[in-house]
């Protein structure tokens, strides 16, 4: 992918940015549909079509303090090597006082930021929005599979709050009973979710959390799911009430010729950034 900028606007320089978008075109750990490596490019391209005025916030978003990083290229020597590469980039951004916003890519990539924040802030909250619980210890002979994306942070003691879930293996229900709260799809009780989330929160959003009629372009679709307005209410409440340390948007796997899912993902990212950096 070539370097693109979010919303296609002249960006805030890195030094002054409060958030850094990190595109990661990598899907080596996908096990069903592939193509999430094309997700970051499609989201950034579609973002150029998004209206920069947000009528809900009554604010112009054109001058958001956001900088788009160069893509982080895949290290295919081993899945854990890729996670190490990404974790270094995230650490650099976070230690500069900026919020990392990761665009994937398959969901195994979320191991990097969730592990980083779980080590840095013991007991940190992870708001995990996904059709799948992603808590397997090992999948397809790797503990770095997309099916294990939340297990590393969970094992480090993070408080895991899962929303939109509709696919969980029995062993996960038995193994992960502590510091984990699950809200099964289609329920999004925002006040209850806020009550169980700690103050510091990392948000990991697998795009397959959305109903597939709204989001067909993803590698591991599940029928059901949550809708657009429930998603926005949850993201707005989290941005307003919690300290959001970072955010990722994973698993958009573009279908050639079908532009609305890419645009939906770009709009979702824009809404979140507006809530986080403009509304307050
Ligand atoms: Mn998923």
Automatic annotation (TrEMBL):
Quote the Pfam families the UniProt record gives.
Arginase
What GO MF terms are annotated? Answer: agmatinase activity; metal ion binding
Q: Which InterPro entries does the annotation name? A: Agmatinase-rel, Ureohydrolase, Ureohydrolase_dom_sf, Ureohydrolase_Mn_BS
Name the cofactor(s) required for activity, per the record. Answer: Mn(2+)
Q: State where Mn(2+) binds.
A: 107, 130, 132, 134, 206, 208
**Cofactor stoichiometry and binding?**
Binds 2 manganese ions per subunit.
Q: Keywords, A to Z?
A: Hydrolase, Manganese, Metal-binding
Supply the name of the protein: Agmatinase
Which species is listed as the source?
Candidatus Terrybacteria bacterium RIFCSPHIGHO2_01_FULL_43_35
